[in-house]
Amino acid sequence: MKLRLTKLVLFPAALIPLARLGWKALHDGLGANPIEVITHSTGDWTLILILTTLAVTPLRRLTRQYWLIGVRRMLGLFAFFYATLHFLTYIWLDKFFDFHEMLKDIAKRPFITVGFSAFVLLIPLALTSTKGSIRRLGKNWQRLHRLIYLTGILGVIHYWWLVKADIRKPREYAIVLAILLLYRIGTWAYESRKRAPAPSISSPSQATEA
Ligand code: HEM
């Protein structure tokens, strides 16, 4: 019940940034450089949604609200949705489907190279987000989906490299990402220590008896 209600609220909420862009576009509200406004909004929301997806596991453990895992897939798919819109803005409105120009850009401008890599990494995650894939891939599904951390790192680097002077916003994203990563590393370390067999306590005499 809680999960259904949360999904019912989150789904339209995640569409608000797109609706705002649509509203602005229809009412001449995108300013002098609409492509820039759309690129920035979709880029921001991609990163926000990637970080929110990463926050689900710590949040559900810390609050013991284990049902929250049920919203992770939806958030991840919305991150992919905004990443696709962001990429489409670039390739369609910015480059007019000039793939040669796009490839040149990917090769020449490091922030585009990194952003493109982050986007490419999201594709297998979106494709394997179905229940069938989770069942089929078993343990490998978890391994594959750890790529979301790399996507987050590349997304932050992409933003950091594209800003010219004011690094405040990418730095905020970097801090949030660092906290989420440290939390995960901490829990991995703790769990693997718990799983490790306890050292056998044998007296020197027992050792020589063997
Ligand atoms: C997961 C993938 C990606 C994430 C998380 C991401 C995120 C972002 C963010 C946060 C911004 C800045 C928004 C702002 O200024 O408020 C941005 C800008 C931008 N991104 Fe991405 N991006 C991704 C993929 C891509 C891809 C694939 C391309 C193109 C191949 C791309 C091209 C751009 C461009 C051209 C800008 C604007 C640069 C400027 O203003 O000079 N991004 N992106």
Topology (SSEs and partners):
Blueprint: H1 2-26, H2 34-63, H3 69-94, H4 99-108, H5 110-127, H6 131-137, H7 139-145, H8 147-162, H9 168-195, H10 204-209
Residues 36, 39-40, 43-44, 46-47, 83, 86-87, 90, 112, 115-116, 118-119, 122, 151, 155, 158-159, 162 line the site of protoporphyrin IX containing FE (HEM).
Radius of gyration: 22 Å
Are there runs of 5+ residues with pLDDT below 50, and where?
A: 205-210
Distance between the termini: 60 Å
Bound small molecules, by name, code or SMILES, are: protoporphyrin IX containing FE
- The averaged pLDDT comes out at 93
Strand content: under 5%
List the helices and strands in order. HHHHHHHHHH
Number of strands: 0
Q: What proportion of the residues is helical, as a percent range?
A: over 70%
Number of helices: 10
Biggest β-sheet description: none
Short description:
The protein is mostly helical and 210 residues long. The protein has helices at 2-26, 34-63, 69-94, 99-108, 110-127, 131-137, 139-145, 147-162, 168-195, 204-209.
Q: Which characteristics define this entry?
A:
mainly alpha, 210 residues, 82% helix, 10 helices, single chain, binds protoporphyrin IX containing FE, disordered C terminus
Give structural notes.
With 210 residues, this protein is mostly helical. The protein has ten helices and no strands. Helix 3 (69-94) crosses helix 5. The relative contact order is 0.09. Protoporphyrin IX containing FE binds at residues 36, 39-40, 43-44, 46-47, 83, 86-87, 90, 112, 115-116, 118-119, 122, 151, 155, 158-159, 162.
